[in-house]
Design a protein that fits this description.
It is built from 14 helices and 23 strands. The protein has 456 residues and is an alpha+beta fold. It has three domains: 256 residues, 2-Layer Sandwich (BirA Bifunctional Protein, domain 2); 58 residues, 2-Layer Sandwich (Herpes Virus-1); 110 residues, Rossmann fold (3-Layer(aba) Sandwich), CATH 3.40.50.800. It is globular, with a radius of gyration of 26 Å. Bound molecules: glycyl-adenosine-5'-phosphate.
């Protein structure tokens, strides 16, 4: 994990937020390569979930909504984690996470036998006594307008899907969709997590990619199975290894206040084993019933064919964009023996980042073999031409081995070298990151060649 974090910082994928001030409470910024990667993840999700489907439409709703939304959704009352404090060192922990960690790996000096409840656990930092668990609400508060009191209280959304529920009627009336159909949204969500950490895995500000599929209650189980399959397929189609991700069903005790059933896609993390990557939830008629009740607007649906009236059930797919990025980076990180031909580093291991071509931040690197003016002019022309279609990087510094190595560790699928022969034969050499095979391609055919490779 440390190696990945260091690569991500060194190559401009992820920076700590406000780093020059010492960082800030589990917030992160995405650098030049990070923003490309996360945008590509969101694009791939949108293509699969909206663009290629007739039965899902998109939405971009406001982050700050009427505070009643969060009362109706149950978040004001129930969106809480159990919190314990150490009476001695004052450190703060999530009781459920602590119990899980200590049960998996009991510290037998501090705990004579595996703990049955949080009461059997002492502070993992100093051995001090812990307080009774108390509930800590995760909603982030803000105030709207000039006065800061209960009348101006509002919340930053804790999950993007609530914006979808309150627009259900608008979309039904304006888009000519009939049930079953879905509404998808990508956007920021905020949670005042008690124990954030593990890098970008759990942050206080993060992006969700959520789709809510509205169905007849009688068909909810069928659609639930369908969407489970779709979500797993999406990750695998984008290169997640079979052994790196798996399903896990939530027990009854774990279910969120809105969920009738929940399965997580988990990934094999280097920080404590299997961790949640994404979820598929059967939210029943909870959300639309509650919003009908709190707003006074009837959100039930009348089937235009059968005239049956019902409150739709919702099958939700929920993915974190940042968490998906972390999983794709971990899944793709590989250290190999020297492969690039970088003479200076021939005794070191090299990193190859295996990213699906559609996710790679840079698709093509153009590398002129010499600093000769004519060669550089041709290389620049090629770069400008390719940049019309793809994120393309021009790199003229260092040996060719070093430049291949730089591209391998950020997952660039193709490197184009412009060499001394280019002026004569009007051809360039294309190197494939995966096979390291090299092909000589005519400049005039380069774009079609790469299009075939990158977009097929
Ligand atoms: N609307 C349902 C919902 O929000 P969730 O399990 O709380 O369900 C869904 O969150 C996904 O959002 C998670 O699987 C994860 O990918 C992402 N997520 C949740 N909390 C997060 C956090 N603090 N930091 C980063 N990603 C988070």
């Amino acid at each position: 994990m440390d190696k990945l974090i260091s690569l991500a910082k060194r190559r401009g994928f992820v920076f700590q937020s406000s780093e020059i001030y010492g960082g800030f409470g589990s917030c992160y910024d995405y650098g030049p390569l990070g923003v490309e990667l996360i945008n590509n993840i969101k694009k791939a999700w949108w293509q699969a979930m909206v663009q290629k489907r007739d039965d899902v439409v998109g939405l971009d709703s406001a982050i700050i909504m009427h505070p009643k939304v969060w009362e109706a959704s149950g978040h004001v009352e129930s969106f809480a984690d159990p919190l314990v404090d150490c009476k001695k060192c004052k450190k703060r922990f999530r009781a459920d996470h602590l119990l899980e960690a200590v049960s998996m790996k009991p510290d037998l000096e501090a705990h004579k036998e595996p703990p049955k409840s949080i009461k059997d656990i002492v502070c993992p930092e100093c051995g001090g006594e812990l307080t009774e668990p108390r509930n800590f609400n995760l909603l982030m508060k803000t105030f709207i307008g000039a006065v800061e009191d209960a009348t101006s209280l509002a919340y930053l959304r804790g999950e993007t899907c609530q914006g979808i529920y309150v627009n259900f009627k608008n979309i039904l009336d304006s888009s000519r969709q009939k049930l079953p159909f879905g509404i998808a949204q990508i956007g920021k969500a905020f949670r005042n997590e008690i124990t954030p950490g593990n890098y970008i895995f759990r942050t206080r500000e993060f992006e969700q990619m959520e789709m809510q599929f509205f169905v007849n209650p009688k068909e909810a189980d069928k659609w639930y199975d369908y969407w489970k399959e779709q979500r797993m397929k999406w990750y695998k189609d984008l290169g997640m290894k079979d052994e790196f991700i798996r399903w896990r069903r939530h027990s009854k005790e774990e279910l969120a206040h809105y969920a009738k059933a929940a399965w997580d896609i988990e990934f094999d993390s280097p920080f404590g084993g299997w961790k949640e990557l994404a979820g598929v939830h059967n939210r029943s008629d909870w959300d639309l019933s509650r919003h009908s009740q709190y707003s006074g607007v009837d959100l039930s649906y009348i089937d235009p064919v059968t005239n049956e009236k019902y409150v739709p059930y919702i099958v939700e797919t929920s993915d974190g964009a940042g968490r998906a990025m972390l999983a794709f980076l971990l899944n793709g990180y590989e250290e190999v023996e020297t492969r690039s031909g970088d003479e200076e580093a021939k005794h070191e291991k090299e990193v190859v980042l295996h990213l699906h071509k559609s996710l790679a931040p840079i698709k093509v690197a153009v590398l002129p073999l010499s600093k000769k003016e004519e060669l550089q002019r041709v290389a620049h022309e090629i770069k400008d031409n390719l940049a019309e279609n793809w994120m393309t990087q021009y790199d003229e510094t260092g040996s060719i081995g070093k430049r291949y190595r730089r591209q391998d560790e950020i997952g660039t699928p193709y490197c184009v070298t412009v060499d001394f022969e280019t002026a004569n034969d009007k051809k360039v050499t294309v190197r494939d990151i995966l096979t390291m095979g090299q092909e000589r391609i005519a400049i005039g055919e380069l774009k079609d060649y790469l299009r075939e490779k990158l977009e097929k």
